[in-house]
Amino acid sequence: MGVLDELSRLSSAEDFFVFLEVPFDAAVVRVARLHILRRMGQYLRGSEVEGAFAGLDEGEIRTLCRGHLEQAYQDFVASTPIAERLFKVHRDAVAPKQPAPKPFVPLAALDGAKGP
After folding, report:
1. CA 26 – CA 104 distance, rounded (Å)
2. How far apart are CA 6 and CA 86, in angstroms?
3. Per-residue DSSP letters for 88-99?
4. Which family is it part of (predicted)?
5. Cα–chain center distance at 43
6. pLDDT in tens, 15-30
């Protein structure tokens, strides 16, 4: 089984750190676990698109994955999940709000109105 297959079977952020032998502060992971894994996924997809996995053996793939996890972890040591805005709910919280449309009553609606 390959490294990427093994990663897909892991169930917690701590499992990723242990499997890839990346040291971590449990307090950082406790606050940003989903964000770290999502960012790592973004880095992995970027590498895949760039063809970085082509021709690599399992050891080299493991090293590449370790580097991406370390980079993702450091992103959240230096920043916060709110500041990074990886999830839609965080992006929507700061998105400019569209003003409510002004009520519109066409003149034709006023012309046909009959009073008591």
Report:
1. 56
2. 25
3. HHHHHHHSPPPP
4. Belongs to the NifW family.
5. 10
6. 999 999 999 999 999 9
3-state helix vs strand vs coil in the chain, percent to 5:
65, 0, 35
Other CB atoms within 10 Å distance of the CB of residue 67: 15
The predicted model scores a pTM of 0.72
- How many CA atoms does the CB half-sphere of 42 hold within 13 Å? 13
Cα gap 53→44, rounded to integer Å: 9
Side-chain-facing half-sphere of 103: CA atoms under 13 Å: 1
Instruction: Round to whole Å and give the CA distance between 66 and 102.
Output: 54
**DSSP SS3 for 44:** helix
- The pLDDT assigned to 20 comes to 96
As a whole number of angstroms, the distance between CA 81 and CA 77 comes to: 10
Question: How does the average pLDDT of the chain come out, rounded?
Answer: 85
86 by DSSP, 3-state: which? coil
Q: How far is CA 37 from CA 73, 108, 111, in A?
A: 8, 58, 62
